[in-house]
Write a structure and sequence with these properties.
By secondary structure, the chain is of the alpha/beta class. Helix content is about 45%, strand content about 15%. It folds into three domains: about 15-130, Gyrase A, domain 2; about 140-215 and about 395-445, Up-down Bundle (Four Helix Bundle (Hemerythrin (Met), subunit A)); about 225-385, Rossmann fold (3-Layer(aba) Sandwich).
Amino acid sequence: MRIPVLPVEGDTIAAVSTPYGVGGIGIVRISGPGAEGIARTLFRPKKHRDRLRSHTLYYGHILPPGSDEPVDEVLLTLMRAPNTYTREDMVEIHCHGGPLAVRRILESVLDQGARLAEPGEFTRRAFLNGRIDLAQAEAVVDVIEAKSRSALRFAQSQLSGCLSAQVRSLQESIRSLLVEIEAWLDFPDEDVPCPGFEQIRSRIDSWIASIDDLLSTYEQGRLYRDGVKVVICGAPNVGKSTLLNALVGKDRAIVSPLPGTTRDYLEEDLLIGGIPARLVDTAGLRDSVEEVEALGVDLARRKIEEADFVLHVLDASVLDPGSFRDPLGPTEAQGKLLVLNKMDLVGHEAVQRLIERMGSVPCVAVSALLGEGMDRLREAMAEQLVSRRMDLDCRVVVTNLRHRNALETCRRRLEDAREVSAREDPAGDMLASDLRMALGALADLLGETTAVDILDRIFSSFCIGK
């Protein structure tokens, strides 16, 4: 089912736009045709105003009808359409950040006829009312959830419309060729010149190259946006928890000389080469007869199966490279590193001999206890996570799987069009059909023609006040 992109009309929505809990300020946001009327009913400015000016802050109190007791002192701003986030009339009420004050103001707004907004409904209205396209709407969540400077920069670039502008430029170029072909097909008696198919192939090749340039940024862009799960595993007492503490720079895991101390898994977030990573410390891998520890070992193996990257920790002081067999075997993870821990117990020369004898197996020697080799470990992890690191500072970056899929669909349709144009007797109607499908993929990316269930899925991931 396809839907036209139409402005939202009708009801007025409201929600709390600040995080739940105690804070310096809380914001209740209202959008819709009833926003100004609700504000006039509830708000008592310190100085009487016959009319509130748009985009101006006013000091006063929220006072429900029939009550002499103010809910809270507030700053209120009315923003009249169309120069608002949703392109509807909007009101923001800034109150003290206690949960009770915020909740009572929201209840007062709802009592005046507004309804509680659905997750992402403010941004959905901005999209449906034409202020932003779907790619920009998705970037709102990416800005909010960015875990690194690179992720924030890419999200802000997408929100500002850089990706959309490049896609629209591609749309216009394809549409221009489609118009030429359709004119040639529809008006055979009007002396419309036959398109030059060699020139058509050249134009298609340039569009495919542009798409390839965008697609080449996806794997690295996705890492910066979504991050990776890094599982630390190994036998008991090889220093896994000490390694976690060394990587995060604090005593996050309990460290004990007794094997089997870690029974459950432990998680901590950090950045590795600018890439958000969630470190998972797991129970030592061994055949255990103790029931609780055995459960921890089973859980550790499940975490390894879910991992994007595995750090397999070994005790360098007892390691025999000649008899070493990797107990993990092949994994689905993007990368795996052997970490030779406790290098302080064997010395640098002995460690180098161990590394040489490990052959082609990627490994890094560290002393997690003393913090030695930790920078080398982080660099090795980053190199494996991004095998071909690109400079993305001045490029439009694709970070969203939906966008990648739409671009790949467009590319396939363009390849089909190129194949048609290369035939001895090209069929113009088939060529036009392929170009229309390529345009359809780009329209899906921007949300110009998008199914309702896809919109519901996208905006359901937003917080309610956004």
